[in-house]
Design brief:
alpha+beta, 2 domains, 13 helices, about 20% strand, elongated, ABC transporter ATP-binding protein, transmembrane helix, nucleotide-binding
């Protein structure tokens, strides 16, 4: 029930100690403000990490070769292992049921690609049709490579958006001829990539055309796979580890590499990499929660202290109230109302300030691993209600102490 006299008492008590009440409110508001900002920053980190892993299809596994570091079966260390088409085909034959997307790759960097009078130094890759999905790229003009292009060794190319902008200067590139390291290719598509220019300086051509045109024979530089999706992360992680261990063992055996030589066949497993990033993000967010909660606790302690001071200052008044018949519950209620009021006003002020900051400043703070800092409104409101509860708890102990005061002792207080 609304009691106007009770509220008049609260405002009168606050007005008598304006500075002290203001400073206490600031400590509480800053606690909520810092917590919400830190939670928003944690979400920004999570969004940035998730965006990075959107740049490639989820669960991508990349395999490439380097040099041996151990002697094995009469062969000296330092051998450069060269992967070939049959390495790729054997891997698919053995693990095809687990594979969703696949492509072998051959990469050449820093060669001149020209159209008319325009030219530039870019990267070209021989790939298969699945590579578009593996890279999570998007065709914005024309089409990507298909099986017929591979089968017929077609001299066709799909270029990145950056190359289109550099070489074609607004002209439609589809059907035009570009010269890739001295060989003519017809542009059949333009792609864009979530990673931006870093990935859009590539030319994709059929693997068979690349190998035949540039004298690579059956050599490849690597293989990329995406495995079938699993119901949860732990299953996906177990599946990817089993697959990578099996493929590594297969390729080591075929290329005469010591079983314990981990340098010759290298594998990047994005599922494992994702776990490291998400674990790191979890630790950061837990740290943010800890800092924010400690700040709130400091504010709540401030509320408790001011309530203790108020009880001390109003000891004689409390004694008179009890002498006139005031019940312990009414005394406790009086103190709690003031405590909850200060905590609630300060809490919502801090919440509003933090949400406004995230709303207007957050979108301006963007980086590769940090984007769109935000906080779930339900979580924010929950923190405020927890703060109010903590404020009530902070006020309860001084209130309980006030209720226990004997009227005769209170009236003697100076």
């Amino acid at each position: 029930m609304f009691n106007i006299e009770r509220w008049q008492e609260i405002f009168e008590a606050i007005s008598k100690n304006r500075l002290r009440t203001f400073l206490t409110g600031v400590s509480v508001a800053s606690g909520i403000f810092i917590l919400v900002i830190l939670l928003g920053a944690g979400k920004g980190l999570q969004n940035g990490i998730e965006k990075q892993f959107e740049n490639d299809a989820k669960g991508i596994i990349e395999i490439w070769s380097e040099t041996t570091t151990k002697q094995y079966k009469g062969l000296n260390p330092g051998r450069q292992i060269q992967l070939r088409n049959n390495d790729y085909e054997l891997s698919i034959k053995k693990y095809g049921d687990e594979i969703n997307k696949k492509s072998n790759t051959r990469i050449t960097r820093g060669l001149t690609i020209a159209y008319g009078k325009e030219s530039g130094s870019y990267q070209y890759r021989g790939v298969t049709p699945d590579y578009l999905a593996i890279e999570n790229a998007t065709i914005i003009k024309g089409r990507f490579l298909n099986d017929n292009d591979l089968k017929n060794n077609e001299k066709v190319a799909v270029i990145g958006l950056k190359i289109e902008q550099d070489l074609f200067k607004g002209e439609d590139p589809l059907g035009k001829i570009i010269v890739v390291n001295g060989i003519n290719f017809k542009v059949i598509g333009v792609f864009t990539d979530p990673s931006g220019e870093r990935e859009e300086v590539r030319v994709y051509m059929p693997m068979t055309t690349n190998q035949r045109t540039y004298g690579a024979g059956d050599k490849i530089d690597g293989m990329s796979f995406v495995l079938n999706k699993k119901a949860d992360y732990d299953e996906a992680l177990a599946q990817s580890r089993k697959f990578t261990d099996g493929v590594k063992e297969l390729l080591k055996s075929k290329n005469i590499v010591a079983p314990d030589d981990d340098s010759a066949i290298r594998i990047f497993n994005s599922v494992e990499d994702a776990k490291q990033f998400y674990d790191l993000n979890l630790y950061i967010r837990l740290f943010f929660w800890w800092v924010g909660i400690c700040t709130i606790i400091a504010g709540v302690v401030g509320v408790s202290n001011i309530m203790l001071i108020i009880v001390k200052e109003r000891t004689k008044e409390i004694g008179i109230r009890k002498a006139l018949g005031a019940s312990p519950i009414s005394i406790i209620s009086m103190i709690l109302h003031e405590s909850i009021f200060i905590t609630t006003i300060a809490g919502f002020t801090g919440l509003l300030a933090s949400l406004l900051l995230l709303e207007f400043v957050g979108p301006m703070v963007q980086s590769e691993y940090f984007r769109n800092p935000e906080v779930d409104f339900g979580v924010a409101i929950t923190t405020v209600f927890l703060l109010v509860f903590a404020g009530a708890l902070a006020g309860f102990f001084p209130a309980y102490r006030a209720a226990k005061i004997k009227p005769i002792v209170a009236l003697r207080d100076e």
